[in-house]
């Protein structure tokens, strides 16, 4: 049976074979690789794993941010117009426009299902391949289980019910490849089962170089995230809070630490640092610029009267200012919080009264690097990092009625430095603590693709997102609409309730 694979590692290997065998030009098409010809060696598995992560990166270019943050109160228009991004932060998405956004995102689930397909292929074939070292086989399977759990978790947070596919899609039989949606509860069962399977397989707690592949510690971060969602959104209660808390404690035992300098966590030159648990890797030639290029500033939009100190901070400009952090978000940062300058830069210009007026702002977090005199937005897309886990720990502790102060204050000590004494957290009621944790997550994790899902988990979207303030009875808006594209190619899939 033929299957279609587009792994970069495979393609590169075939190109190399072509160059070295110019006398024999009768090659099979590289898009068609049979089970019999490919899944033979450990090297085949390495190529397939690489392909799976490349496919994840195709989602990290824009979709992970669009799904996880774009609909929150975090974003607003910038100097260059909207490029239709306002459909997200104004919460005007519908079945017709959700898949048609400028450049960096396309809110359909098809791309993430290709990641699931890659994981399914690995889970099917890896057990049949002989490895020189058994632990390498276990590692490959663990990464595939983790990836499938992550992909389904992202999708169910976004769309709720999903077609559940746990075997590779091989062939074109519509009775096999076209599925109705399974309940969110059944999707969550699979996610938790995959997490358990991966947990039993990881041979060690070690990270691979770059921290851009799944590891046991990253799995534990995912587990905490999943069980917090299950506890709060799916009525999992105390048992799920306890599981989430235990997972965060396990992360703390791994090779992780908060960096003293907040900005260096995201710097292009410090990728794979000890605060990172899992990131999607971007590098020149290998990848296109990611979503953050549309939060910076092109020369055309730079004001000539901006003071030199601000120009120096912005540095060599680039990107397109189609959206930026909203005033609602920016105004929550205090001047003594090092996260403020490391997250955004406000631009002021002189006015006729001798003062200054606000002109605009750019997102300075993930501002890339200079390649050939051009700013390229090739910072890794961070999926999990240690500060995120500490705040998940505080959330789980609060859910259990325990004191979350230590975890919150670890994050604040780094943020405020010598001024930490003025920002020390002291526990209050559960409601108060949750409000503090949610705000701390805004300050710590701004523009990292977390905010919308945080608002849904804390049940605060209708309270804190301005465009939802008068729509509190429209609970269906917590899920995304399913696009016309998806509905047209998957006839057994029905639209989410509430969307016409």
TrEMBL record:
InterPro entries: SusD-like_N, SusD_RagB_dom, TPR-like_helical_dom_sf. It is found in: Cell outer membrane. It holds the Pfam family SusD_RagB. It comes from the Bacteria. GO terms for cellular component: cell outer membrane. Residues 299-463 form the RagB/SusD domain. Residues 43-228 form the SusD-like N-terminal domain. CDD domains: SusD. The keyword Signal applies. Keywords: Cell outer membrane, Membrane, Signal. Belongs to the SusD family. This is Putative outer membrane starch-binding protein. It comes from Sphingobacterium yanglingense.
């Amino acid at each position: 049976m033929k299957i279609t694979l587009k792994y970069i590692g495979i393609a590169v290997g075939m190109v190399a074979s072509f160059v070295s065998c110019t006398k024999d030009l009768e090659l099979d098409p590289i898009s068609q690789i049979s089970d019999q010809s490919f899944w033979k060696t450990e090297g085949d598995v390495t190529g397939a794993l690489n392909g799976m992560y490349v496919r994840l990166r195709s989602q990290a270019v824009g979709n992970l941010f669009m799904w996880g943050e774009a609909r929150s109160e975090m974003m607003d228009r910038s100097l260059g117009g909207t490029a239709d991004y306002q459909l997200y932060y104004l919460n005007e998405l519908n079945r017709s426009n959700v898949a048609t956004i400028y450049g960096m995102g396309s809110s359909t689930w098809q791309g993430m299902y290709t990641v699931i397909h890659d994981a399914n292929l690995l889970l099917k074939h890896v057990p049949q391949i002989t490895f020189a070292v058994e632990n390498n086989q276990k590692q490959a399977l663990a990464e595939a289980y983790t990836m499938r759990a992550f992909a389904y978790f992202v999708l169910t947070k976004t769309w709720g019910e999903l077609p559940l596919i746990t075997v590779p899609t091989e062939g074109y039989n519509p009775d096999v490849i076209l599925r109705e949606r399974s309940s969110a509860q059944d999707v969550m069962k699979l996610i938790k089962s995959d997490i358990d399977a991966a947990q039993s397989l990881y041979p060690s707690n070690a990270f691979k170089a770059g921290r851009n592949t799944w590891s046991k510690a990253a799995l534990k971060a995912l587990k905490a995230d999943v069980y917090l969602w299950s506890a709060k959104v799916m009525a999992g209660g105390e048992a799920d809070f306890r599981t989430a808390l235990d997972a965060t404690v396990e992360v703390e035992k791994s090779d992780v630490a908060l960096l003293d300098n907040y900005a260096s966590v995201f710097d292009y030159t410090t990728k794979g640092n000890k605060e990172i648990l899992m990131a999607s890797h971007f590098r020149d030639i290998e990848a296109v610029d990611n979503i953050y290029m549309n939060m910076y500033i092109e020369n055309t939009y730079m004001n000539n009267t901006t003071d030199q100190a601000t120009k120096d901070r912005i540095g060599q400009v680039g990107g397109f200012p189609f959206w930026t952090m909203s005033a609602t978000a920016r105004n929550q940062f205090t001047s003594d919080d090092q996260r403020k300058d490391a997250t955004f830069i406000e631009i002021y210009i002189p006015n006729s009264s001798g003062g200054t007026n606000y002109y605009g702002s750019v997102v300075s977090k993930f501002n890339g690097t200079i390649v050939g005199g051009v700013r390229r937005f090739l910072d890794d897309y961070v999926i999990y990092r240690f500060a995120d886990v500490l705040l998940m720990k505080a959330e789980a502790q609060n859910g259990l009625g325990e004191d979350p102060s230590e975890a919150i204050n670890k994050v604040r000590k780094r943020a405020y430095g010598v001024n930490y004494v003025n920002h020390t957290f002291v526990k209050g009621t559960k409601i108060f603590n949750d409000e503090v944790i949610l705000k701390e997550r805004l300050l710590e994790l701004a523009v990292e693709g977390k905010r919308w899902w945080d608002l849904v988990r804390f049940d605060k979207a209708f309270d804190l997102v301005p465009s939802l303030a008068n729509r509190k009875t429209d609970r269906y808006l917590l899920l995304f609409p399913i696009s016309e594209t998806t509905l047209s190619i998957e006839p057994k899939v029905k639209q989410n309730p509430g969307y016409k």
